[in-house]
User: What shape does this take?
Amino acid sequence: MAPTVPFFQQVNLNFDTAARYTDFPSGLLDQVKMCNTICHMAFPVKRDDGAIEVIHGWRAEHSHHKLPTKGGIRYSTLVDEDEVMALAALMTYKCALVDVPFGGAKGGVQIDIRKYSTDELERITRRYTYELVRKNFIGPGIDVPAPDYGTGEREMTWIADTYTTLNPGALDTLACVTGKPVEQSGIHGRRAATGRGVYFGIREACNVPEDMKTLGLEPGLDGKRVTVQGFGQVGYHAAKFLSEGGAVVVGLADIGGAIYNSNGLDVEEAFQYRGENGSLFNFPDATNLSKPAHVLELDCDILVPAALENQITRHNASRIKAKIIGEAANGPTTPEADDILKAQRVMVIPDVYLNSGGVTLSYFEWLKNLSHVRFGRLESRFDENMRRNLLKAVENVSGKRFPEEEQERLTHGATEEDLVDAALEDTMITAYHEIRTEARALGGEFHLRTAAFLIAINKVAQFYMQAGIFP
Ligand code: GLU
Assistant: This one.
């Protein structure tokens, strides 16, 4: 069903709701809200059969208050100017919220990836990158893309390679894009990062006894029934970490079908099954749902939309049974649906916060590429040796020995994976409490989105003020 309000306008409605709580000059608020630049390109691609096709692509840079701008590149038939502007705006607020020092951007190419061969997708990606270079819409200090719906490590490698080829001798070219494979100067944990952040965020929300009591739920993630819509990089990892964290995944949906089992589904097995069969349909011991969208209305405690925007609308919001909605996707809930959910006293953990794990790890990858050294390389062995010496000293004084595994656990030097995972956990926990505190100041635990926007607006507007642009 078509949404009533265009996506960018929906984001701006959320902005306006929050902006009412500030006293910044209206011109400054307009500057924060507007999309600063947008580039539309139409370029030819040669199909494998020799035919020539025109491809449409966009890149929107929503806010230049901090540079580079940052945000993914999406390949989908739904991509258009409105969508990339909305998604770029969400990136600005997301980065501000978790103190990642970038402005927001987003790109997209209007294609159905299933209709193109790998060679054709490579030609499209390289030509799109070339267009970005020509328009000065990509670079380590300009605008840094990343994966999004329909793209992944493979596309990021093509982008990095094209950019590097076009900038011979430049030192930092690999920092022109994030989400690269680890072997291509990517960072450990980036692939799982958004889902991992979703898990940390939901776990933190569930760990506040007072809020769980208001929702009529027990504190903690343990035993909470979860359904996940979308089984790509984000949905799969969110489901995996939530189930490893003690939740019971009762419903899963991807583009081809949805399944349900009130006793719980094995996420790893479902992932493997989908890989082998192309869809989740007929997964053993599960009931098929006639429409993937029905997964949103299943009986559960936590619903995680992890697919696309405009999924929870005024048409289905009143049928949602979950007490908590964890927005792993960007823009899954329309403002009209938000009002309905608020009236139903559903806690919505907003996208701008909950899916920020991806860009947080992208920030670490960008830092790693600029410093040309992996995290932990300099100090890992030194730390380990120091701790071993300490344990030895304790053993000498006490005359007792630590068991081998205990020694290993207490002394091991942090790897890149350990460091970025701890940093992500800290980022998600800190930001959650910042938002929760602001929400309570606004009147309750159901105002998390407005609180998140308010914090982001304050940060961006204050940055402009301090820069002296609006004295
Ligand atoms: N596409 C992701 C998002 O929507 C990640 C962006 C990035 O890493 O720059 O947040």
Observations:
- Residues 37-184 form a domain with the Rossmann fold fold (CATH 3.40.50.10860).
- Residues 27 and 470 are 9 Å apart (CA to CA).
